[in-house]
Amino acid sequence: MHESHKPAHHRGSLDKQTWLLLIVNGLYITANALSGTFLGVYIWKESNNFTVLGWFTLLTNVFMAVTFWIAGNWVKEGNKMICLRIGTAVSAVFYATVLLLGKNAFHYIWLLGIIQGLSIGFFWLSFNVIYFEVTNAGNRDRFNGWTGVMGSVVGMIAPWCSGYLISRLADEKGYRIVFMISLGIFVACVAVSFFLRNRRMEGNYHWLLPFRIMKKRGTPWRPIFGALAAQGLRESVFGVMIGLLVFIHTGSEMQLGNFALITSAVGFVSFYATGRWLKPAWRPPAMLVGTIVMTLVIIPLFFGVNYTNLLIFGIGAALFIPLYTIPMTSAVFDMIGTAEDSVKERVEYVVMRELALNVGRITGMIIFITTVYVSREPLVINCMLLFVGSAPILSWVFMRKRLLPQHR
Q1: Tens digits of per-residue pLDDT, 42-81?
Q2: Phi and psi at residue 278, to the nearest 5°
Q3: How many CB atoms are closer than 10 A to CB 178?
Q4: Of 163, 187, 229, 332, which has the fewest Cβ atoms less than 10 A away?
Q5: Which regions in the chain score pLDDT beneath 50?
Q6: Domain spans of the chain?
Q7: Please, what's the largest Cα pairwise distance for the chain?
Q8: Where do transmembrane segments lie in this chain (predicted)?
Q9: How far is it, in rounded angstroms, from Cα 404 to Cα 34?
Q10: Class of domain 15-198+207-407
Q11: pLDDT over 70 for what percent of the chain?
Q12: What's the CA gap between 95 and 91, in Å, rounded?
């Protein structure tokens, strides 16, 4: 259904289905925040090797991309709700595998990367298709704001609780308890998903549609693809590095939990305010300000990588990243909703969006692995972080003409 033809009562407010989807998202990110925040630390403590973490993340991103593309057929021609539940279940399998492997987990980084990539691919492909179906151009910024708020609340509470447990319990007991709690939350996430309505889709899955679209001259999806790839470039590297740097320079899981608590508290306020008051007409300047500040807050690290400077970075990024991600996400999904054809082929367009993000994530990890292989000097690492961290400016350059309401 073209977005302009959706019922009026759905355009501005969030209905029961959107709130259910927010709950599913909240449970999923809670389970991952509890364990995922410390997964890199867990692997690092046993391997003491940046490259191992880099290869784990690279494998995750590669198999995530492959899963997005292949599972697109199942989501469109089968049942996307089953795909969502399988993604959640495989996430549970991932943490169960980590529990079974224990201290030997880093020796099986290839297996863990594959499982993680499959779980993320299945879940987020189906989630994003459902997200497109239950939202519209009128309430997408609000939904994304609430998603950010929930993510920030989870980011405040979950890592702090994990850090407290891990730091208070001897040996690996704290990690094992945290991983087991995540398993239980994934089960709850599956249960809630049964209340989501499965909207049937028409037509067959067009395997090569993303590639055909990219071949067209003048298509708006070329700059959008570049913008998404730039977003993924930053995500992958900073997702690995920041939490690990906090742990390395403090030697404490509790301090990492405190770092997550403080930065997520700032993010909570910022996401709430941005989601509530950002208007579509303000997207271009908001995104520009967000990208510039997200880059500038990396500079303090050049004066010393310590907890204080990492906290300055974390607070600055948390404060301004909503100005970047909310306009970006909303504008891309608004583009999918501009015409009947793109709405009917929403799965293929979501797949293309995820492929673009993963092109950036894979590129980012290749840059990261190459950098730490050549040198691990602080100056070299900081230069790499500044280079990768400035990628959102490129996103704005590509997206600036696609953010305004008249382009929807």
Answers
A1: 899 888 999 999 999 999 999 999 999 999 999 998 889 9
A2: -70, 125
A3: 25
A4: 187
A5: 1, 4-10, 406-408
A6: 15-198+207-407
A7: 60
A8: 20-44, 50-70, 82-102, 108-131, 143-165, 177-196, 224-248, 254-274, 286-305, 311-334, 355-373, 379-399
A9: 37
A10: mainly alpha
A11: 96
A12: 7
